[in-house]
Design goal:
This protein is mainly beta. It contains one helix and 18 strands. The longest helix is centred in the first third of the chain and has 13 residues.
Length: 243
């Protein structure tokens, strides 16, 4: 059963802000208590863009310049690196030192691709998975990048839908869950929605090794214009979605 509830943009912004602050990396040092670190993309009034790191006391740790507006931040399992993805359509991922904000690597999308705002590290930290769009073929893709080889592009596979947005692993550490937003866009028209009448968002489960489709779930037809964007899970692998 799907339950929907209308909320205002202000209510959403408040709740979303709390969620973003929940993206914490716990870093510990010898003989010192653990300190929570938080990361958030921000923009200034004069149109500059940054990724800001700060601690639980509100003290800024760094403020690193980005080439364009950022979207989501992913923390590596080791807590040594964070990955900052450009807002869709994005053309950069910055890998930063999680403590200092220094840029340690930059990822550009492959030909005819752009990033869709989110990434996720494998549980062992070996691979970085990203949601992308192939705008030549109009299809969603997952890109896989080799962390130990300076985040070199390794392979990709289909998401079986348009506009993949957030991505995460189930507790088995082998299954990827992908939110296919279902919205068709083109680089030349940026974020303009080109298929509102026919869009088909879906929730997809993929084998993280070979991209094999394991499950795909669509919304009821009356809800097909609710783009599935952000997802999270509980300890029982129940998936919660924001549309």
């Amino acid at each position: 059963m799907i339950i929907t509830r209308a909320i205002t943009r202000r209510q959403f912004s408040i709740s979303a802000g709390i969620s973003f602050l929940g993206l914490a990396s716990i870093s510990s040092a010898l003989n010192k208590p653990q300190e929570l670190h938080y990361y958030s993309a921000r923009s200034s009034w004069d149109g500059q863009h940054f990724i800001n790191g700060f601690n639980s006391k509100g003290v800024s740790l760094f403020d690193t310049t980005l080439p364009a507006r950022g979207h989501a931040v992913t923390v590596a399992p080791s807590s040594q690196h964070i990955a900052v993805v450009g807002r869709r359509p994005g053309y950069f991922i910055y890998i930063l030192n999680a403590k200092t904000g220094d840029v340690v690597s930059k990822i550009k999308p492959e030909k005819n691709r752009h990033f869709n705002g989110h990434s996720f590290f494998s549980a062992d930290g070996r691979w970085l998975y990203t949601t992308e769009t192939d705008f030549e073929e109009n299809c969603g893709m997952i890109g896989v990048y080799d962390v130990e080889n300076n985040y070199r592009f390794l392979k990709e596979f289909l998401t079986h839908g348009l506009d993949p947005h957030e991505i995460l692993f189930l507790s088995d550490k082998k299954t990827l869950v992908v939110a296919n937003g279902g919205i068709l866009t083109r680089p030349e028209t940026e974020r303009s929605k080109l298929n509102v009448d026919s869009m088909q968002p879906s929730l997809v489960y993929l084998n993280a090794e070979d991209g094999k489709l394991e499950h795909q779930y669509f919304l009821p037809q009356k809800l097909h214009q609710n783009s599935i964007r952000h997802i999270t899970r509980d300890a029982n692998d129940t998936i919660f979605i924001a549309m």
